[in-house]
Design goal:
Length: 214
Amino acid sequence: MNLKTLCILCTLAIALGFDAFAQDAAPVDDFAAYAWLSEMPGLDAPDALVALSARFPAPAGFTRVPVEKGSFAAWLRGLPLRTDRTSVLAYDGSEIDAPAAATVALDVGERDLQQCADTAIRLRAEYLWASDQADTIAFSFTSGDLAKWKDWRQGERFEIGDHEVTRTRKAKKSASRETFHAYLNTVFMYAGTRSLVKDMQSVGDDEPIEAGMV
């Protein structure tokens, strides 16, 4: 099992959140909150997708830990899973040799950019996009420079040198999904596990792990 697969499995396992005495969260009604689905062909059939929470029901004697409606945790539980296959495909279409119980219907682009920490970044960014919080999307590069989506859509771009990052305004203003993907690809290239720590809050050893944590 590679690190990329492990990261995805850990994220989804925490999203499920079982508890012996908790109440079930409200089910996801549809997949409108997962904007990338409209960009992927072959997923428009009524039975092409199933929500993660429906695919993996709570074991006998357990119910799900309650989460707030509209929260990141609730959004993760509604992630669309493919019903046609469980195999995972890489960016070039090749099959990744790692067994999986299910596959999230999530595009990974045409370059080998969306790797371990990038998957967590992608999911968080897509959630903020879907919940009308897109202007709060921002991730640190390993250089320490903060890349904000609200500045990128206004035309800001980066020139990456050997020892510094220079900000420029050389692109047309655009808030399209295509522009959003270009922003994320840049984040994937210059951010990673080390820089992601700068964008998250630490949880104490005595604090419970909650759905949505990385």
